[in-house]
UniProtKB/TrEMBL annotation:
GO terms for molecular function: metal ion binding; N-acetyldiaminopimelate deacetylase activity. The keyword Metal-binding applies. CDD domains: M20_Acy1. Keywords: Hydrolase, Manganese, Metal-binding. This is Peptidase M20.
Length: 406
């Protein structure tokens, strides 16, 4: 098998190509399942490398490397979708699409996966089993992973282990550091809520003839905070945030309704905490709405479970990443104490099906001016780490298969 040094050198030689892929994607961000240009770029690149990429689900792409020698199958995943936000990064290759931005770094992931695909194709004879490459849409809306799962992601060949990386920006970490978690829950579940408060609109001069949904919604917003501060077990993690609050169109009209959208995150695999939040959120919204003569509809959607990392696979990953990167591989539990983070990731659906490890790659050191985190309109990522990411994906696949011969 190729040595870690040789693999890193080969990956470094791809650097110009990696940057070109990443920056092309960055200029043309696409969101959700609607990724025609992104998917075309991925399929073209894979085909040129000698792969036979296949569609999976609404907008996913799969490609197989190896399969010449008997062995297990490992899944490597990169997501491809951007966010519906306006970019303010100031990069010369910033988004050319108004209102869309690769603000989570999925353009980096796609480029890293293409780099891994290239490296693996060049060393295909050394793959002791099969490496399945997954290019996933719609991560940000927590639907892409599930859609690909429902469309045979883990079959033909059957997947035995699964790996993902996510880039990180805005942390005081040396650029290029791979963070490997311990086992257990490493990321929170997430789901959306939508509260609609119905009143009765009318002229702003005559509130007495109306039922003001904005006042009721404002009281609901404040009242919901009591769930966190007074009702949830402080030892249990449960957080929700209303990130969008909309009502009315103009200053002198009381609208008919007001809307609030938000997210709920927990780290309870049994779901009891989110059930408690569902119940109390519904009761409080409807109760407060009634107190102000309104009604409220409360809906929950787009659920994504907690990320569960497989302990033996995480131990393997720490060993392999240390072989590849030396001190550039870091045990994440040193930073977190093994506590899960509040972020969420829809690859969690896969983690409930097969042993999974989800790692991070530091791609923007806050001390070097990369101060903004993912999802911020000003976030920037240091794409000098792309070659390491490509090598890390490829090495995880090659090394795990050689370590776990069937
Ligand atoms: Zn994101
Ligand atoms: Zn992301």
């Amino acid at each position: 098998m190729i040595t870690p040094e040789e693999l890193l050198t080969a990956a470094k030689e791809l650097e110009t190509q990696l940057r070109t892929w990443r920056r092309t994607l960055h200029r043309h961000p696409e969101v959700g399942f609607d990724l025609p240009e992104t998917k075309a770029l991925v399929k073209k690149a894979l085909t040129e490398m000698g792969y036979a990429p296949q569609d999976c689900g609404k907008c996913g792409v799969l490609a197989l490397a190896g399969g010449k020698h008997p062995g297990k199958t490992i899944l490597l995943r990169g997501d491809m979708d951007a966010l519906p936000i306006q970019e303010e990064s100031g990069e010369e290759f910033a988004s050319e699409v108004p209102g869309k931005m690769h603000g989570c770094g999925h353009d980096m992931h796609t480029a890293m996966m293409l780099g891994a695909a290239k490296l693996l194709k060049e060393h295909e004879d050394e793959i002791e089993g099969t490496i399945k490459l997954e290019f996933q849409p719609a991560e940000e809306i927590f639907q892409g992973s599930l859609d690909m799962l429902k469309n045979g992601l883990l079959e033909n060949p059957k997947v035995d282990a699964a790996v993902m990386f996510h880039v990180l920006a805005g942390m005081p970490l040396p650029v290029g550091t791979v963070l490997v978690p311990g086992g257990g829950i490493t990321m929170a579940s997430c789901e959306q809520y939508h509260i609609t408060v119905h009143g009765k609109g009318g002229h702003g001069s005559m509130p007495n003839a109306c039922i003001d949904p904005i006042t009721a919604a404002a009281h609901i917003h404040i009242a919901l905070q009591e769930i966190n501060s007074r009702e949830l077990d402080p030892a249990k993690f449960g957080v929700f945030t209303t990130g969008r609050f909309e009502a009315g169109k103009t200053s002198n009209v009381i609208p008919d309704s007001a809307d609030m959208w938000g997210t709920i995150r927990t780290v309870d695999p049994e779901g009891a905490v989110s059930e408690q939040i569902h119940q109390r959120m519904t009761e409080i919204a409807q109760g407060v709405a009634a107190a102000y003569r309104c009604t409220a509809d409360v809906e929950f959607s787009d659920h994504c479970p907690c990320m569960v990392v497989d302990t033996p696979l995480a131990k393997n990953a720490l060993t392999y990443m240390t072989e590849l990167l030396g001190r550039g591989a870091m045990d994440m539990t040193v930073l977190t104490g093994g506590k899960p983070g509040g972020g969420s990731e829809d690859f969690a659906f896969v983690s409930h099906e097969v042993p999974t490890v989800s790692m991070f790659l530091s791609a923007g050191n806050a001390k070097e001016g990369y101060v903004y985190g993912q999802h911020h309109p000003k976030v920037r990522f240091d794409d000098s780490v792309l070659y390491e990411g490509a090598a890390a994906y490829a090495y995880m696949g090659l090394r795990w298969l050689s370590d776990h011969k069937a």
